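ok new one. same drill as before - structure tokens go in, u give me an amino acid for every spot. 274 of them this time. try not to just spam alanines like last time pls lmao
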């Protein structure tokens, strides 16, 4: 089904000019606009303050497109509450990919620079991964607009009286969190294999990934309210004891890796590294 909306006239157009727009496209435009409003205002414990009017006004201001209630009520969503549920579920789907890529880049750079012919150099690389990737991850979590939204969605999924909306949101959040943890699990497993290490029994790479994500989430919340408690820790971990800057998340990450990970006995790097 196609829905019609009117668009602010550009040069040479009249105000009566209209165009047809498919419902799928209109849905995406509205949800994207609503998420922009969420990022600006904060989720809190609900999305009740994200109304059709507020979202439509934002879309008109940023794109020139005019959307009316009649374009969506009974056509895309049955009412505003139905729209707010769709919004929070959509927001839950889109909050984690950026974190993954923000952490992956420095992670890969450390591996590319690693000399793998000795156990000491490979363990130094593991420590440097904790320091550099931990710093990048915490930096993203505390500076992006997406991270507070993610925290708010988690709170919305566990707060208030049990309801169908809470159940749907909890299920969606758990599925997204599981997928995100699986992506990090794959990266951690590949990095450990590259550095001649493995997960200690009886643990799994998924358990390590879940532990790291939990530590990251908690550290990010603490930084938002008490940054000096987490940041700016000096340690003599560089070449020849050079002082390097760590944060509490990176130090906790190093401790987790030390507990979960061990060298593979008699491991040797590929011939091209030798």
């Amino acid at each position: 089904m196609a829905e019609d909306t009117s668009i602010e006239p550009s040069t040479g157009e009249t105000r009566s000019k209209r165009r047809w727009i498919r419902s799928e496209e209109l849905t995406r435009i509205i949800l994207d606009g609503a998420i922009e409003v969420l990022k600006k205002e904060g989720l809190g414990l609900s999305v009740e303050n994200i109304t059709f009017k507020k979202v439509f006004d934002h879309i008109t201001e940023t794109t020139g497109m005019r959307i009316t209630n009649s374009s969506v009520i009974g056509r895309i969503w049955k009412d505003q509450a139905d729209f707010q549920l769709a919004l929070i579920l959509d927001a839950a789907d889109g909050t984690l990919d950026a974190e993954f890529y923000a952490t992956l880049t420095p992670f890969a750079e450390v591996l590319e620079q690693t000399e793998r012919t000795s156990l000491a150099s490979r363990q130094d690389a593991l420590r440097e991964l904790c320091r550099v990737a931990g710093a990048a991850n915490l930096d993203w979590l505390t500076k992006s607009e997406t991270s507070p939204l993610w925290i708010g969605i988690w709170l919305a999924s566990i707060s208030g009286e049990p309801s169908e909306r809470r159940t749907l949101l909890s299920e969606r959040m758990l599925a997204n969190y599981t997928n995100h943890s699986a992506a990090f699990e794959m990266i951690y497993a590949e990095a450990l294999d590259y550095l001649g290490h493995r997960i200690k029994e009886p643990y799994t790479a998924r358990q390590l990934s879940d532990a790291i994500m939990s530590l990251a989430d908690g550290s990010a919340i603490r930084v938002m309210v008490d940054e000096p408690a987490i940041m700016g820790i000096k340690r003599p971990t560089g070449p020849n004891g050079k002082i390097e800057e760590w944060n509490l998340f990176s130090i906790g990450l190093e401790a987790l890796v030390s507990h979960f990970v061990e060298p593979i006995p008699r491991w040797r790097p590929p011939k091209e590294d030798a």
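The mean pLDDT is 84. and btw Residues 2-92 form one domain.
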